[in-house]
Amino acid sequence: MRAINAVLLLALLLTFSGCVERPEAPAVSEQQATEEWKADGIVNEGEYTRSMLLQAPTRQGYSGGDMQISWRNDEEDLYLALNGSTLGWLALGFEPLEWMKDSDIILASVDKGTAVVLDEYCTGNYGPHIEDTMLGGTDDIQEFSGSESAGRTTIELKRSLQSSDRFDKSFSPGQAVSIIWALSDNPDISQKHDVAYGEGILSLTRAGGVASASLPGSLTPIEKDG
Ligand code: HEM
Fold it and tell me: Which CATH number fits domain 24-224: 1.10.357, 2.60.40, 2.115.10, 2.70.98?
C-alpha cells in the first residue's frame, strides 16, 4: 500500500512540476510573399510565406540553441531558409521513420564564406547518413547559398516537391511534413550534433497559397504526436 501511495505521489509531483508536459508546437507565422526568392544567403522581408522558430534547451551534451525555418512552396518547388544558432553544421531531415532513420537529410555549413549543402539520407536509427549520390541516388538540391553572421548560419535552398530519387521524399502542396533538425558547433559533418536537436512539422501551402488545414492549432491528434 505504501509503495502504491509513493508511486501516486511521484506521478502527481511530476505532473505538476511540468516534467511530463508535451512541448507546445512552435507558432507558425504567415505572410504574403512580396519578393522573388533568391539564393543569396539572406532572408529578406517578404521572401518566404511561413516561418517558425524551433528551440531546444541546454541539456547534457548539448549547449542549447534554435533554428528559424522559413519556407514557401508552389506546385513544383520548395524554397527553404535555415537560420541556426551555430557556426558549425546545421541540418534538416524530412520524414524519419523513427529517430533519424530513413530521413531525407539536408546537411549544410558555410566554409570561408561558401555554402556547402549536401543531399543525404540516413540509413540507421542514429546514422550513418550518407550523400544520396554515394547510395546510388542523385543530388537534388537545385540552388543554394549561405552566410554567417553574429554567431548564426543561414542557408537558403530550393528543391523539387516531387523527386524520382528514392533517397528523396516527395511532397504535395498542402501536406504536413514531419521534420527533424539538428545543430553542431563543429563544421565537420562527421561530428555529432552538440548544440541542439528536435522535431517539428513543416506545413506546405496548398495550390494558390491557401492556408493549409494542418497548421498548428488545427493539427490532427496524430500530427500533434509527431
Ligand atoms: C554525425 C552525424 C550524426 C550522428 C553521429 C548522430 C547521432 C545521434 C545519436 C547517437 C542520437 C541519440 C541521442 C543522443 O545521443 O544525443 C541522435 C539523436 C538524434 N539525431 Fe542525430 N546524429 C547525427 C546527425 C544528425 C542529423 C544530421 C540530424 C538532423 C537532420 C539528426 C537528428 C537527430 C534527432 C532529431 C535525434 C533525436 C531522435 C529521437 O530521440 O527521437 N542527427 N543522433
Answer: 2.60.40
- Residue 226 CB less than 6 A away from ligand 1: no
- Are the beta carbons of 154 and 86 closer than 8 angstroms? no
Residue of minimum CA distance from atom 27 in ligand 1: 91
Domain boundaries in the chain? 24-224
CA of 159 to the centre of ligand 1 (A): 23
Nearest to 128 by CA among 107, 142, 146: 107
Return the SS3 of 31. Answer: coil
* CB distance 159 to ligand 1 below 6 Å: no
How far does the centroid of ligand 1 lie from the alpha carbon of residue 181, in Å? 9
Instruction: Provide the residue-wise pLDDT of the chain in tens; the chain has 226 residues.
Output: 455 565 555 555 554 444 444 567 899 999 999 999 999 999 999 999 999 999 999 999 999 999 999 999 999 999 999 999 999 999 999 999 999 999 999 999 999 999 999 999 999 999 999 999 999 999 999 999 999 999 999 999 999 999 999 999 999 999 999 999 999 999 999 999 999 999 999 999 997 654 444 444 455 555 555 5
Protein residue with its CA nearest to atom 38 in ligand 1: 99
